[in-house]
Specification:
Shape: elongated
Strand order of the largest sheet: 1-2
Low-confidence stretches: none
Number of helices: 20
CATH class of the largest domain: Mainly Alpha
Bound molecules: arginine
Distance between the termini: 47 Å
CATH architecture of the largest domain: Up-down Bundle
Number of domains: 3
CATH topology of the largest domain: Fumarase C, Chain A, domain 2
Number of strands: 6
Order of helices and strands: HHHHHHHEEHEHEHHEHHEHHHHHHH
Largest sheet: 2 strands, antiparallel
Mean pLDDT: 95
Helix content: 55-70%
Length: about 475
């Protein structure tokens, strides 16, 4: 990046002294907004095409501008472009270089627009593209979860409430709970996209422009669904970024919960899953360690996503209409939320299929926590007991089991009959974890049959 002569700024006409060197660096955004160059060029070409259509530019001028901008795009991509802090931001860097390349036509590009509607347009084009990429990544992760759920549809594990063993569930069912969260996350991004895909261009600085612009034409060229209805709102609104970051924060929150479970399950105490070695690291001092770094980092990075959302909400809350320079601060939190989310989704999508499931440990854990106590109570109700009495009887059976160090399913019929005389041999059908899960056979229930049906429905919906 170069520091050009400060008196040569494009808006320098009304100034009598150059910008303070530190102020120049302080106010510049080119260090981070150069990331928008593709959208800036795309928006400029469409704007110039529209200006030619309405007769503000000649066709030849438009052709020069479009060719010049395309050449510039290649220059940027090859790394030959020199970004200048003196030129403040991505918009003025590109415009100045264009004029350097094509002369007077370059100076006409900015007719009928302002950086205020330009940057709002760039940001919307950028967010739109990122939404599409995130939705694609979410689909890939959902598919990975569906594949694993299918494989583990019959695998029994303890279901928890308060992190205490509650009732048996199938691991497939547990994975589908994560899948559901990601289905809602996907819907949030799709919904957000509707409000993102509205074009601010034409609002100019804040009040619109005196040129005979055709906003619908530009919108059509850029693939926008519509044009912003109010010029003041168009240049100042950043709701679409807040919405995106809120959806990103929610998805991160889900990935963080998911991470927390993986970390617990990979621990020596649980040993439910083994996270592939390539997603873990060792310790520099303890040779036995294999640390679940990837889920830990995803959990940790979730803090950024929350922070970025709060930063943006706070950025907006004090702003009078219309554009204020405050809005330049919308970029870094947004970019960080995008990079964080996309990285986390990518690593999760690689990690999920590599999980090794320890079915035996899951089953043993299910047999340890009296997880079928509710099943025994339900059984007694079917045999004629009132639920409260059944609850009492099962409580006694559990106390006996605790004393004996044996699960309910490991007690003999005779032992069970001592607490509940109506118990017969068929009790063992419900006392096993497999019997317990199979009995919860309704939509939304944990039975293997329901897990398989839910996978079929999910795959059909995903198309
Ligand atoms: N770099 C600015 C931003 O990111 C572009 C718009 C500047 N507009 C202005 N009137 N200074 O918001």
């Amino acid at each position: 990046m170069s520091n050009n002569d400060t008196t040569s700024q494009v808006w320098g006409g009304r100034f009598t002294e150059p910008t303070d060197a530190f102020v120049q660096a302080f106010t510049a955004s080119v260090g981070f907004d150069q990331r928008l160059y593709r959208y800036d060029i795309m928006g400029s070409i469409a704007h110039a095409q529209m200006l030619a259509k309405v007769g503000v530019l000649t066709d030849a001028e438009y052709q020069d501008i479009a060719a010049g901008l395309r050449a510039l795009e290649r220059e940027i991509e090859s790394g030959d472009f020199t970004w200048s802090v003196a030129l403040e931001d991505v918009h003025m860097n590109i415009e100045a270089r264009l004029t350097e390349r094509i002369g007077i036509a370059g100076k006409k590009l900015h007719t009928g627009r302002s950086r205020n509607d330009q940057v709002a347009t760039d940001m919307r084009l950028y967010v739109r593209e990122e939404i599409d990429a995130v939705i694609g990544q979410l689909r890939a992760l959902r598919n990975a979860l569906l594949d694993l759920a299918e494989q583990e549809a019959d695998t029994v594990m303890p279901g928890f409430t308060h992190l205490q063993v509650a009732q048996p569930v199938t691991f497939g069912h547990h994975l589908l709970a994560w899948h559901e969260m990601l289905v809602r996350d996907t819907a949030r991004f799709s919904d957000c996209r509707k409000r993102v895909n509205i074009m601010p261009l034409g609002a100019a600085a804040l009040a619109g422009t005196t040129y005979p612009i055709d906003r619908h034409y530009t919108a059509q060229l850029l693939g926008f669904d519509g044009v912003a209805e109010n010029s003041l709102d168009a240049v100042s609104d950043r709701d679409f970024i807040i919405e995106f970051c809120a959806a990103a924060a929610t998805t991160q929150m889900h990935l963080s919960r998911f991470s927390e479970e993986l970390i617990l399950w990979a621990s020596q105490q649980f040993q439910f899953v083994d996270i592939g070695d390539r997603f873990c690291t060792g310790s520099s001092i303890m040779p036995q360690k294999k640390n679940p770094d990837v889920p830990e980092l995803v959990r940790g990075k979730t803090g950024r996503a929350f922070g970025n959302l709060i930063a943006l909400l706070t950025l907006m809350k004090g702003q009078p209409l219309a554009y204020n320079k405050d809005n330049q601060e919308d970029k870094e939190p947004l970019f960080d939320s995008v990079d964080t989310l996309r990285g986390c989704l990518r690593v999760f999508t690689d990690m999920v299929p590599a999980l090794r499931v320890n079915r035996e440990r899951m089953l043993q854990a299910t047999l340890q926590g009296f997880s079928t106590a509710t099943d025994l109570a339900d059984y007694l109700v079917r045999k004629g007991a009132a639920f409260r009495d059944a609850h009492e009887i099962v409580g006694k059976a559990v106390r006996y089991g605790v004393e004996q160090g044996r699960d309910l399913s490991a007690l003999t019929l005779e032992e069970l009959q001592r607490v509940g005389a109506m118990i017969t041999q068929d009790v063992f059908d419900v006392l096993t974890p497999q019997g317990s899960v199979a009995a919860r056979n309704h939509i939304g229930g944990t039975a293997p049959q329901q897990v398989r049906a839910a996978i079929v429905r999910a795959r059909k919906l995903a198309g």
